[in-house]
């Protein structure tokens, strides 16, 4: 039972972890990207399109090549979220548009984009249900280590996931190391804290913001990809992604901008998100209350952090502000 | 004097939109000398130096480093030419340590904090800096932050150092320490450029002075041939009377009796500790102290903007009523009683004025309650705005120009002018001349002196000790929330006040 809860929590948490790691990288550069839900959505649908095209090119499902089945959706997903990241950067960094407005527009756009192509694919296959199923490619994404089944609770908690889940944790740890231990990380944080200072120190603010935001978008996009190809068994249905994108942004605050903390945060959020399944006798209405728990926890963390008002635990100082060198 | 030219500017011009910031400016800096760039606020000193350090790019003109033409289009280029600038507003990342700030932006070699620390230590030993390299910037005093900035520039191997108003935020003692370090650097063959508008510092530290006026080059003179008067005349282009008339205070009336005033900040630290003083109508009471010592909290407590502890007492004695206890009253009630606060914060627009509103609307922020009905009456504020523009010589296209578009000095005139216009019984001003040119500063000083003659009790928080000594009848010195002394303005010396400003902080002394 407990092993099941933990396992389910982790599976729920992985998309959030991708999303929040991506958003942390982005926010560390001073860009508050509220387009993350849209970007994750686009990351998902782009992967679905890739997988769909690949499956359709096969004569029979048995011909599928595991390497290509993963590589094609992966590349499509990267491309999709990268373009989203670039649009966001172009608008906010180059044209210095308001970040909040741009982000929200990106989310609206991303969800619309996803639903349009999702709907089109469903129409193409003439499906009876409003969803599209990509079992063949999904099976490759969900492949686990062969001995995972035989190791009892240990295997269930630690070994029962597709490769993207491990990638999420490795990426989060990698980002943590990058931010705290490398020169690049120091420069990135400097840009987010005080771009004028970074600029005066000879760091290219524009380049740093573009790089961080685009890489962050790609990482977040993996969250969408993982959600469809692994968590949802390759089944895409419009709006199926839910509010996970917003949860990912809440998780950034919960983790006080630390990728390492966000690993545990994501599992906690994942657990809270599905806890209603394990409480017997809940009405549909009450379930929604339980689904709101992660947000409540985020607000509590926000309050605690503000009361303690330790500078290190605050978000980057120039978060949400655009930078223009010759501004006076 | 050294012979070799380190830096030369020829015919530099820079415009922002339609405003000419620098026009055809020439400048020469030799190796191993200290050059002052003197000019009023808005004369283009900082803009000029920003072009040397790569923040701005000149519209036309030539920059030569070591006799060779140099293109400096970014701060990185400036470092390549061994030019480093210490900005007035420190360019430091608050949550980083000193070391992290120092290595920021350097890309050569392995990322090795230990090696960096050793190199930094060598620099600090060489020039005699005193600093804890692992301290976070936000825990540092202003002087420490400045030290980090200087080390940062030296670490990058700068041979030409530009300091923008380096002493503006320092106590006299800290200033002396800084000057000692600068002299050591000069001996080491470095060229140092100091941007300033403080004449006595120019005379004390520099070898030569270049004077700018309204963006144009005026002249360069050897310091030994210059006097305060001659420099001022070149700066202003006219003769200026630099004396503040301080009349003997007459008809003193007790206005404020502050007793046991204690303020505890949100984080539990004590901002003010049992403050006790009286303020009289007809005199100017100066308040001196390093920034963050509690002056702000003091003024805010009197104005009703600060929560004070229960025992605190601020008695206000108006003519028509009995003594009024201000503690516990709302800012509105206090203002109605005739206590006005003109606080010019570091961010001038942050408190007091709304940047996107025009001058008239900003006048109305004080008077909006006096109108009848729910419609605004713009007539009175308009005439007031025009009066202030005229009397204080505010440079603005019109009274309906958004305040944000005015230069800092003009914004300040609007703010101070508005507060004085309400003819308060108690007038509190903090940094009223911050960023103002000499002429406007003296306008403000004279305005204050006039108010004093009218019998207003004035509390003046200032940074420039010379001015405090000249203008104030009594000077109260605060350090770490405690009054360390109240001295007579006529007899006090700068050194005496400077000592009081840093006196008896056992806590800090133990740290060192």
Tell me what the structure shows.
The complex is a heterodimer of chains A (328) and B (512). Chain A has helices at 2-28, 36-57, 66-94, 99-125, 135-141, 152-158, 163-181, 183-193, 195-200, 205-231, 244-254, 259-274, 284-291, 293-308; strands at 131-133, 235-237. Chain A is mostly helical and 328 residues long. Chain A has a single domain, classed as ABC transporter involved in vitamin B12 uptake, BtuC, CATH 1.10.3470. Chain A has a two-stranded antiparallel sheet with strand order 1-2. The radius of gyration of chain A is 20 Å and the shape is globular. The two termini of chain B are 38 Å apart. Chain B has a six-stranded mixed sheet with strand order 6-7-8-3-9-10, sandwiched between helices. Chain B is 33% helix and 25% strand. The chains are: A mainly alpha (328), B alpha/beta (512). Chains A and B meet through helix 8 and helix 9 of A and helix 2 and helix 3 of B.
Q: Please count the helical segments of chain B.
A: 17
Rounded to the nearest angstrom, the distance between the terminal CA atoms of chain A is 62 Å
The class by helix and strand makeup of chain B works out as alpha/beta
Poorly predicted residue ranges of chain A: none
Which series of helices and strands of chain A comes N to C? HHHHEHHHHHHEHHHH
Mean pLDDT of chain B: 83
Mean pLDDT of chain A: 90
Shape of chain B: globular
* Structure summary, number of beta strands of chain A: 2
Q: What's the number of domains of chain B?
A: 3
Helix content range of the residues of chain B, please? 25-40%
Oligomer: heterodimer
Strand content of chain B: 25-35%
Largest sheet of chain A: 2 strands, antiparallel
CATH C-level of the largest domain in chain B: Alpha Beta
Structural class, judged by helices and strands of chain A?
mainly alpha
């Amino acid at each position: 039972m407990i092993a099941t809860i933990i396992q389910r929590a982790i599976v729920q948490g992985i998309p959030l972890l991708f999303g929040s790691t991506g958003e942390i990288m982005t926010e560390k550069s001073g860009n508050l990207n509220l387009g993350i839900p849209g970007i994750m959505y686009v990351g998902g649908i782009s992967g679905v399109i890739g997988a769909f095209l690949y499956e359709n090119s096969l004569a029979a499902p048995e011909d599928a090549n595991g390497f290509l089945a993963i590589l094609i959706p992966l590349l499509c997903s990267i491309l999709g979220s990268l373009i989203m990241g670039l649009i966001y950067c172009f608008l906010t960094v180059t044209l210095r548009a308001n970040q909040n407005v741009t982000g929200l527009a990106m989310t609206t756009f991303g969800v619309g984009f996803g639903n349009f192509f999702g709907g089109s694919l469903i129409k193409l296959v003439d499906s009876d249900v409003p969803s599209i199923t990509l079992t063949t490619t999904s099976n490759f994404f969900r492949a686990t280590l062969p001995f995972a089944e035989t190791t009892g609770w240990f295997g269930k908690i630690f070994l029962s996931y597709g490769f993207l889940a491990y990638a999420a944790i490795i990426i989060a740890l990698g980002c943590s190391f990058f931010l705290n231990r490398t020169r690049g990380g120091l420069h990135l944080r400097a840009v987010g804290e005080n771009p004028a200072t970074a600029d005066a120190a000879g760091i290219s603010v524009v380049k740093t913001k573009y790089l961080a935001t685009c890489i962050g978008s790609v990482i977040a996009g993996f969250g969408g990809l993982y959600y469809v190809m692994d968590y949802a068994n390759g089944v895409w249905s419009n709006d199926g992604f839910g509010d996970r994108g917003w949860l990912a942004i809440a998780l950034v605050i919960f983790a006080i901008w630390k990728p390492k903390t966000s690993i545990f945060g994501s599992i906690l959020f994942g657990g809270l998100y599905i806890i209603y399944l394990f409480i017997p006798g809940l009405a549909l209405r009450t379930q929604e209350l339980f689904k709101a728990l992660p947000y409540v926890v985020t607000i509590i963390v926000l309050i605690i952090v503000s009361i303690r008002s330790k500078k290190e635990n605050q978000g980057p100082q120039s978060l949400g502000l655009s930078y223009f060198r010759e501004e006076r | 004097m050294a012979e070799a030219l380190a830096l030369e500017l020829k015919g530099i011009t820079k415009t922002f939109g339609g405003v000419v910031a620098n026009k055809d400016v020439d400048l020469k800096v030799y190796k191993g000398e200290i050059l002052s760039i003197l000019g009023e606020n808005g004369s283009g000193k900082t803009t000029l130096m920003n072009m040397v350090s790569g923040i701005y790019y000149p519209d036309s003109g030539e920059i030569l480093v070591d006799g060779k033409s140099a293109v400096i289009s970014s701060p990185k280029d400036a470092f390549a030419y061994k030019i480093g600038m210490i900005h007035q507003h420190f360019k430091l990342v608050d949550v980083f340590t000193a070391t992290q700030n120092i290595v920021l932006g350097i890309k050569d070699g392995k990322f090795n904090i230990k090696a960096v620390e050793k190199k930094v230590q060598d620099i600090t030993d060489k020039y005699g800096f005193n600093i804890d390299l692992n301290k976070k910037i936000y825990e540092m005093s202003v002087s420490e932050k400045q030290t980090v900035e200087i080390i940062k520039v030296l670490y990058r191997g700068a041979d030409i150092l530009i300091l923008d108003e380096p002493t503006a935020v320092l106590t006299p003692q800290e200033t002396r320490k800084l000057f000692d370090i600068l002299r050591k650097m000069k001996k080491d063959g470095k060229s140092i450029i100091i941007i300033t508008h403080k004449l006595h510092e120019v005379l004390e530290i520099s070898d030569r002075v270049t004077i700018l006026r309204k963006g144009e080059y005026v002249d360069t003179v050897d310091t030994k041939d210059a006097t305060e008067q001659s420099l001022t005349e070149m700066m202003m282009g006219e003769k200026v009377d630099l004396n503040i008339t301080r009349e003997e205070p007459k008809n003193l009336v007790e206005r404020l009796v502050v007793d046991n005033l204690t303020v505890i900040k949100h984080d539990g630290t004590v901002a003010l500790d049992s403050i006790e003083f009286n303020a009289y109508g007809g005199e100017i009471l100066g308040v001196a102290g390093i920034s963050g010592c509690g002056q702000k909290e003091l003024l805010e407590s009197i104005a009703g903007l600060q929560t004070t502890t229960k025992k605190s007492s601020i008695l206000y004695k108006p003519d028509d009523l009995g003594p009024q206890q201000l503690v516990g009253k709302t800012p509105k009630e206090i203002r109605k009683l005739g206590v006005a606060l003109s606080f010019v914060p570091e961010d001038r627009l942050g408190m007091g004025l709304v940047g996107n509103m025009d001058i008239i609307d900003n006048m109305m922020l004080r008077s909006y309650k006096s109108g009848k009905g729910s419609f605004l009456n713009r007539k009175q504020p308009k005439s007031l705005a025009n009066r202030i523009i005229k009397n204080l010589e505010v440079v603005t296209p019109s009274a309906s120009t958004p305040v944000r578009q005015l230069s800092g000095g003009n914004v300040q005139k609007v703010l101070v002018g508005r507060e004085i216009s309400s003819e308060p019984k108690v007038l509190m001003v903090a940094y009223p001349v911050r960023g103002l040119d000499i002429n406007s500063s003296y306008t403000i000083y004279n305005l204050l002196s006039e108010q004093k003659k009218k019998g207003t009790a004035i509390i003046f928080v200032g940074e420039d000790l010379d001015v405090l000594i000249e203008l104030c009848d009594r000077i109260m010195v605060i350090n770490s929330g405690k009054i360390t002394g109240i001295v007579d303005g006529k007899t006090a010396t700068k050194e005496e006040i400077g000592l009081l400003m840093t006196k008896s902080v056992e806590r800090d002394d133990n740290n060192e």
